[in-house]
C-alpha cells in the first residue's frame, strides 16, 4: 500500500480501509492506497497551516530554487513515474511521458514567476495633499487542490505551481482512481527540501473527504477541475449564499473532458472564481491575481 503524505511523513492516518487502484489494461488491482477520512483531512490541513508561516516568509528566490530542485528529481525518476501513470490511468506510455513533460514545463514556468509577483502603485486625486493607492500581493494560506483522473499530473501542476511559488501551502486531493503518480511526485518534492507540511496529499473517496476539505476553516482557496455538477457543489460549499453558489454550469467548474488545461478556484471569502495563484490581500477585500 502506498501511503498518504501528510506533514512530510508517509502515513495512513487512522484509515482502516483501502482503495484499490485498478490497471485499466488488465482490470486487475495494481496497488492500494488508504481510504482516508475526516481525520486525515484535518491532519493534512493542520500540517499545511503550521508550515505556512515559514514557507510564506521564505525568500521567493529560495522557493523557486526548491521547486527547480524537486523538478530535477522528478526528471530523474521519469521512467518510474511514467510507468505508474500508465498503469493507474491507462494512457499509452508516450502520452504518459508527454503529460509528465507538460507538468515539469509548467512547474518550471511557475518557479520562474516566484520572483516576479508584482503589486501596483497609483497616484490618486486629492484636495488634501498627495495621495496614492497600493496593491500588495501576499500569500493567503493553505490551499486545497482537487484534481481529476484524466490529467492527474498536468492539472495538479496548474494548482500547486502558482500556489507554491506565491508562498502558499497545499493539500492535494487526487482522484481516487489515480493517486499514485501524485504521491510519488509529492514525495520527491519533499525529498528535494520542500519543508514538511508545505505539500500534502490525502487519498480517499471524494464523497467521504471532499466536503470536509472544501469547508475546513483553515482552507483559504479551493482549486478544482472536474465535472460541472461537482463544481457547482464545491462553489456552494466554499461560498454559501453568494453568487458563486448560484453560478451557471459554465462558470461553476471546468469540464474534465472539454477543457483540461485550466482550473476553477473558489475563494471561501469571496464570490469570485479564481485560480490558486498569488493573491492580493487587504483589510477590506481579497482577490486573486
Low-confidence stretches: 248-289
Shape: globular
Q: Assign the CATH topology.
A: Aldehyde Dehydrogenase, Chain A, domain 1
**Class in CATH?**
Alpha Beta
pLDDT average, as an integer? 87
Largest sheet: 6 strands, mixed
Helix percentage range: 40-55%
Total number of distinct structural domains: 1
Structural class: alpha+beta
- Spatial sequence of strands, sheet with the most strands: 10-9-8-11-12-13
Give the termini separation.
39 Å
CATH H-level homologous superfamily name: Aldehyde Dehydrogenase, Chain A, domain 1
Q: How many distinct beta strands?
A: 15
CATH architecture identity? 3-Layer(aba) Sandwich
Structure description:
With 289 residues, the chain is of the alpha+beta class. It has a single domain, classed as Aldehyde Dehydrogenase, Chain A, domain 1 (3-Layer(aba) Sandwich). The protein has a 6-stranded mixed sheet, with helices on both faces. The termini are far apart. Helix 1 crosses helix 7, helix 2 crosses helix 6 and helix 4 runs parallel beside helix 5. It is globular and about 75 Å long. It is built from 9 helices and 15 strands.
Short description:
The protein contains nine helices and 15 strands. The protein is α+β, with helices and mostly antiparallel strands.
Per-chain topology:
Elements: E1 4-6, E2 9-11, E3 18-23, E4 28-34, H1 38-57, H2 60-76, H3 78-89, H4 93-113, E5 120-124, E6 131-135, E7 137-138, E8 142-146, H5 154-166, E9 169-173, H6 180-191, E10 199-201, H7 206-215, E11 221-224, H8 228-238, H9 249-252, E12 264-267, E13 273-274, E14 279-281, E15 286-288
Parallel strand pairs: 8-9, 8-11, 9-10
Antiparallel strand pairs: 1-2, 3-4, 5-6, 7-14, 11-12, 12-13, 14-15
